[in-house]
Specification:
It is built from 18 helices and 13 strands. With 625 residues, it is α+β, with helices and mostly antiparallel strands. It folds into three domains: 9-214, Serine Threonine Protein Phosphatase 5, Tetratricopeptide repeat; 215-357; 384-624, Phosphatase 2c, domain 1. The strands form three sheets. Strands 2, 3, 4, 5, 8 and 9 form a six-stranded antiparallel β-sheet that branches. A five-stranded antiparallel β-sheet has the order 1-13-10-6-7, with helices on one face. The model is unreliable at 1-20 and 264-269 (pLDDT under 50).
Length: 625
């Protein structure tokens, strides 16, 4: 898991660069996580699972970094970097280099930070990852600012800005403008700082969506005006070129005529000269008339062109006016519709508030009934003598999800034998509580009244009792129970266990064993799966649940439980605790006194759960011999 270097990371670096870094003590949970990660890394290393080993080192580095143990974080990131270099995992190498650079920046080692950011930039450039290139250059500019190397910082920022413009990415452009403004200010260039701050502010509004439509309309209007102006200028230029060419032609012809006139004065008679002069004057007047006519045409053409432009603009104005009017009318209709809807909603709101009051009253009544049911259930399972009076070093951790629970514990002493069970009924809350009453009554009948103490026989009798009570042979009812049950023979110093889906955990001499139960529960789906089989082979009934036998030795600990503890969501990554971590927790605390074990389990459960809702009922019974 990597700490990603985002585009705005430079703000964090600027702040953290001026703050005093203080190491924070590791919590017990953090220490446990570190120990577990080290253990997993060793296992992955032994199995040559390099990717998984690298992930463990990254998580360890993250933990040390979060508590400001920078040297430790660097140590483990470099271990991960070494592995990823072997794997040629370029993306991971780039991310780790970025994290190392950030840590060195936190430590004030800016030259080291710059070196690792440069490595990140090289990889991002090779991979042509444009966003990554921009982020790397921005991060390098922050470090260069701390080193007062402002020219290099500006160079990186302008390259990042060119790439952002190429991508047409306003978010990245905003980041570059903001950082350029900051850098120019530090360099003492107020003019450029204010210029880029203005761009940053405009792009910030653009990104936030406040100027998107306005910018689009403005751009469209400017583009239209530009195209019209270009057309107008082109027409004017063509007309002017044509006019100048015609005038130049006339002027050349006139000059030629005048030259001919001068050359003929010496060779022709005065009369002939006058005739030619008159003819030339006539031609000159005709040329002037044509020139005046041409100018008049040009003026008329310009008037037509300008009128066309004005009419086009007028058409656009009228078009946009009616579009706006149409939008306003639609908006008024929409507002009227909204007002009508609001009135309907208000009526519905009043009806809902009335129903809510009735539901609140009903809820209070139901809550009182459930609370009283919880009191009855508590009285039912809290027996005398207490389990601690039979086994001094024992505890019961019972945490129902709701006021009444679907899990329960049960025990009874029959002669020199003690039968103890942890039962997980289908569901929780009120539905589960009904099954706990059925289960409690069946156990009383089977063990206390009928004196049956062999765990496998007890579970089979429970299975028959649930099927009969819920009429599961002739109905679609699938409710049932999972349970772990053991019998302790105080005279022979023996322990007997049988389980319906649930196991028994036994710890002796620091060795933890999980004795699994049979893979079918009490009643429910098991009646469907095994009912036909047992009808065909009735002699197999006694083998349905296997009874395991063990010698009881000093300091041996056993635990019976439901699945509520290990299924709880929580922890740093908000995931299930799972059985492996639960078993490690039992092993870690098994040498403590029973009362202290219970406190440790309760404390761990609450810390793990955090702000999450409890997902299921929890029951754990622990006995230390």
């Amino acid at each position: 898991m990597f700490k990603t270097a985002f585009t705005f990371l430079f703000f964090i670096i600027i702040i953290s660069g001026n703050a005093q870094t203080q190491k924070f003590n590791l919590s017990r949970q953090d220490s446990a996580d570190l120990s577990l990660l080290e253990q997993k890394a060793a296992e992955y290393r032994a199995g040559n699972y390099l990717k998984q080993e690298s992930d463990c080192y990254n998580k360890i580095a993250d933990l040390w970094w979060e508590h400001n143990y920078f040297e430790k974080a660097v140590e483990y990131y470099k271990k991960s970097l070494e592995i990823n270099n072997k794997l040629a995992n370029e993306n991971a190498i780039a991310m780790i280099n970025s994290n190392l650079a950030l840590i060195y920046a936190d430590m004030g080692k800016y030259e080291e930070a710059l070196k690792y950011f440069q490595k990140t930039l090289t990889i991002r450039t090779i991979r042509k990852e444009k966003i990554g290139i921009i982020a790397a250059r921005i991060n390098m500019s922050v470090v260069l600012n701390n080193l007062k190397r402002y020219d290099e910082s500006i160079e990186h920022l302008k390259k990042a800005l060119d790439l952002a413009r190429e991508m047409n990415d306003p978010v990245q452009m905003r980041s570059c403008y903001g950082m350029l403004s900051e850098t120019y200010e530090k360099a003492g260039d107020t003019k450029n700082s204010m210029y880029y701050f203005g761009l940053y502010r405009d792009f910030n509004e653009l990104v936030e969506g406040k100027k998107v439509k306005k910018a689009y309309d403005y751009a469209r209007e400017q583009e239209l005006k530009r195209k019209l102006a270009e057309k107008e200028n082109q027409i004017k230029e063509l007309e002017l070129i044509k006019t100048n060419y015609e005038l130049l032609t006339k002027e050349k012809a006139l000059k030629k005529t005048q030259k001919e006139k001068l050359s003929l004065l010496d060779t022709i008679s005065e009369k002939e000269l006058k005739l030619r002069y008159i003819a030339n004057q006539k031609k000159l007047e005709e040329a002037k008339s044509k020139q005046i006519l041409l100018k008049s045409k040009l003026v008329i053409r310009n008037i037509i062109l300008i009128s066309s432009i004005i009419l086009s603009l007028l058409f656009l104005f009228v078009f946009f006016y009616f579009q706006k009017r149409k939008s306003n009318l639609a908006l008024q209709a929409k507002n009227a519709e909204i007002s009508q809807k609001n009135e309907e909603i208000q009526v519905q709101k009043n009806n809902i508030e009335h129903l809510l009051e009735e539901m609140t009253e009903a809820h209070e009544s139901i809550k009182k009934s459930i609370d009283y049911a919880g009191f009855i259930q508590s009285a039912m399972i809290n027996k005398t003598p207490k389990l601690s009076e039979i086994f001094p070093e024992s505890f019961i951790l019972y945490k129902p999800k709701d006021a009444v629970g679907g899990d329960f514990y049960w025990y009874s002493k029959v002669g020199n034998k003690v039968v103890v069970a942890a039962v997980d009924c289908t569901g929780h809350g009120v539905p589960g509580a009904f099954l706990t009453v059925l289960g409690n009554n069946l156990l009383n009948q089977i063990v206390t009244v009928s004196k049956i103490t062999k765990p496998g026989d007890i579970l089979y009798k429970m299975h028959e009792g649930v099927m009969s009570a819920l009429n599961q042979k002739d109905s679609n009812n699938k409710d049932g129970m999972d349970m772990a049950l053991c019998t302790v023979d105080l005279e022979e110093n023996k322990l007997y266990f049988a389980g319906a889906n649930n196991p028994l955990v036994m710890i002796q001499d620091d060795e933890l064993r999980v004795i699994k139960g049979n893979k079918y529960g009490i009643g429910g789906f098991s009646s469907m799966i095994f009912g036909k089989y047992l009808e065909m082979l009735p002699e197999k009934k006694t083998e349905m649940y296997t009874t395991h036998k063990f010698d009881i030795r000093k300091d041996m600990s056993v635990y019976l439980f439901s699945d509520g503890f290990q299924d709880q969501m929580g922890g740093k990554n908000n995931r299930k605790l799972k059985s492996v971590r639960f078993y490690e927790l039992l092993k870690l605390n098994h040498k403590l006194k029973a009362s202290e074990q219970k406190k440790q389990l309760e404390s761990f459960f609450e810390n793990w759960k955090g702000d999450n809702e409890q997902v299921d009922d929890v029951v754990i019974v622990g006995i230390k011999f």
